[in-house]
Amino acid sequence: MAGMHTLARVAREVRRDVHAARDRDPAARTASTGEILATWPGIHAVLAYRVAHALKDAGVPLIPRALSMVTRVITNIEIHPSARIGQGLFIDHGAGVVIGETADIGENVTLYQGVTLGGTGFATGKRHPTVQDNVTIGSGAKLLGPITIGHGAKIGANSVVITDVPPNSTVVGVPGHPVRVDGRRMEGPDADWIHLPDPIAEAIQALSSRIGALERMVAELSDTEPAPVAEVRPLRQLRGTNPAGG
Fold first, then answer.
1. Minimal CA–CA distance to 184: which of 173, 170, 172?
2. CA dihedral sign of residues 74, 76, 82, 83
3. 21-51 pLDDT, tens per residue?
4. How many helices (H) and strands (E) does the chain have?
5. In 3-state terms, what secondary structure has residue 162?
6. 99 vs 117: CA distance, rounded Å
7. Separation between Cα atoms, residue 60 and residue 56, nearest integer Å
8. What pLDDT is recorded for position 243?
């Protein structure tokens, strides 16, 4: 009975994973379930993880790690069998994704290629991130250590996150830090990495404004003309519609 219960649970999880792929990947919306199961590497990796994790929980030796390594060779995605992953995980493209042993992933999480949920140091115990529900993590992002990524957060592409992330926030940069996007609460899958704020340009603009104010004060005291304030432009123009279609 326990074996049948485990198989039924895995089957339910796989159905949710296939639905997540069809819901969040435009290329999968016209594909059949059989095609998604046969040709989506992210689905292959998660399916293999589900089986390996069930075997690990059942106390089966060697086979869970061996299955994980074979899946890594085939898909270029490494998920440790001891990681805990909720339903509805979608790994888009998937190349280079690494999910460590003590990582915890909630439901309806989206990972893009090159994401690492890694540990720091050689300590035992909890050493990998906890990712709560409805989180989206952009391409190449590195989340390191036993940090918590709050519900509904978004991690920008190539960010390096080493501290906790508040719920419903967007994180960019190296090291990553939260920013707001148009003052709006954002939640759920969203591939719009182009319209993120530019915190470096914003910081330089604040410094430029402050220097301009000081130069005007000096000019007034010395009865001279103040120098013009340099214009600071963002590295990318945040205009137009979302090219990702979100």
1. 170
2. negative
3. 888 888 888 888 888 888 899 999 999 998 9
4. 5, 15
5. coil
6. 5
7. 6
8. 41
Q: Which residues of the chain have pLDDT under 70?
A: 1-3, 6, 10, 180-201, 226-246
Q: Quick one: the chain helix, strand, coil %, rounded to 5?
A: 35, 15, 50
User: Which helix (H) or strand (E) covers residue 116, if one does?
Assistant: strand 116-118
Distance CA(22)–CA(30), nearest Å, equals 8
- In the structure encoding, which two tokens stand for residue 31, read together? 């594909």
Q: Are 156 and 171 in contact (CB under 8 A)?
A: yes
Rounded CA separation 46/58 (Å): 18
Give the Cα separation of 171 and 7 in Å (integer). 38
Share of the chain above pLDDT 90, in %: 42
Q: Which helix (H) or strand (E) holds 110?
A: strand 110-111
What is the structure's pLDDT at 121? 72
Flag whether the pTM goes above 0.85: no
Half-sphere exposure of 225 (CA within 13 A, CB side): 2
Sheet holding 177-179, edge to edge: 90-91, 110-111, 136-137, 154-155, 170-172, 177-179
Pairwise CA distance, residues 135 & 238, whole Å: 23
Residues 164 and 151: beta-carbon distance below 8 Å: no
Please give the domain boundaries of the chain with CATH numbers for all domains. Answer: 2-179 (2.160.10.10), 198-246 (no CATH)
Transcribe 119-153 into DSSP letters: --SS--SS-S-EE-TT-EE-TT-EEESS-EE-TT-
Q: What is the pLDDT of residue 242?
A: 47
